[in-house]
Every structure is written in structure tokens, then in C-alpha cells.
């Protein structure tokens, strides 16, 4: 049995859906679905009840989870003892995940290998993971400090508008929010920091939210090609290969910005990690 099948099972059990599990694992949804099906085939057991509301454990699935989860956590803890001391497990949000950063960051001056280990829509979910030692460091959006951790700013990021090349607004050099709201909106999951900012702005200005599509990050930009949709995204995402398929426009009087902070429980990690991330995130 492939150990990846077990990891997929445990992650789906905790996230309640294949799409969220895929985001957390950095895999495609078909790959995660295939892994859990192979596990069920190996065990000759049905582990999940599948519905439009998500994935729910069967009685057998819950028993299997209760048995395997402590073993999996202990295995990860023991494996980490053999990881080179300069290897750092980094938690990142999908807007700055391995889709936009390399899976492993290296920067000669810091002599560290930084592995993008976990993703979460809400960065605050990294707090208990840091406390338990599941990760060594994490990047937080607009959350500068937390008791018990060392933190520092690594990047100030602004937002632009992404549209398809054949969009009616393609000839505009700069767009207003009012222009953007005249077309279908592609927004990240409701648990994300940006969605909360976007929702608050809509409520404040009395803008009607119609034709709104909240999608997982991995299908975010691809969906712009449908129905002349628009998306407001961080500049950090305005990178190849996206430039081959989309246009990026300045947003006039842009109300969206974000500061990215590095958190770690180990003071000795703070400066070298900061150097590595600043070097990598320079655009």
C-alpha cells in the first residue's frame, strides 16, 4: 500500500472535502480522489460517504481514522528527527504557495532548505501547527505578531485585476472597482483573507454581489476565460506562466493591499529565513 493513500485519507477526513484536501496537499483533486479509492480498494472497505456537501467518514472510516491518525503523527515526528537541521518546514497560504513559490527555496546566504509543507486558506490555522511543532515557520497575511512567536515583515504586496486576453476591458490600461463589478467575479474560498476584505468592501459600498464564483486557487485563473470574468489578485501572482494567457491591469484607488509576515518559534531561524524569503519574493 502506498503511504500517500493514507495521507490522502487522513487529510480528507480532517478537511471534509477532496478540494480542500488537494489544496492542503498541493495535489490535483483527481490525484487525491484516486489515492483514496485505491486505499478503499486495498482495504475492501468503504471509508467515506460522498455527497454534494462533501466527504463524511463511514463508521469503518472513523475507526480507521482513530487508529491511523496518532500513528501518522508519530511517524512524522520521528521522521523529522532525521531531517537535516538546515531543512525548514514552511506553512504558506495558497496565494503564496508552491504554485507561485518553488517547492523548495534555497538561498546561499542563509544555508537553509525551506520546504513548502502545508497550505491553509486561513493563515491563523498555522498557529496551533507551529505550537505543536508540525511546521517550523509560516507566512501570515496582515497578522504582524502573536504571543510566543518571533515575526518579521517579508513583503508588502498590492493587487491587480486579471482578465482574459479577449475580455471587453482588454484595451483599458487601468480599471476601477465599478468596472470590475460589471462582470462576473472570480474570488478565492470564503475562508481566505482576501474574500473577507472583498466581502466587507461590497457591504460598505452597497455593491450587489451577483455572478460570484468562489473557487479553489488551483482553478482560479483558468476560470477567467469563461463568461468574461474578472479577478483581483496579488501582484505576486502576476508571474509567468500566467502572462502567456492573461492580461493584468492596474486597479485605480486600489483598496486592497497585504503585508506578509514570517512567523517562527525559533529565534535563530528568523533572520536567515527572512533573507531567503525576501530574496525569493523580490519581483
From TrEMBL:
It comes from the Bacteria. Keywords: DNA-binding, Transcription, Transcription regulation. It holds the Pfam family LysR_substrate. Residues 1-58 form the HTH lysR-type domain. Belongs to the LysR transcriptional regulatory family. This is LysR family transcriptional regulator. It comes from Shouchella miscanthi.
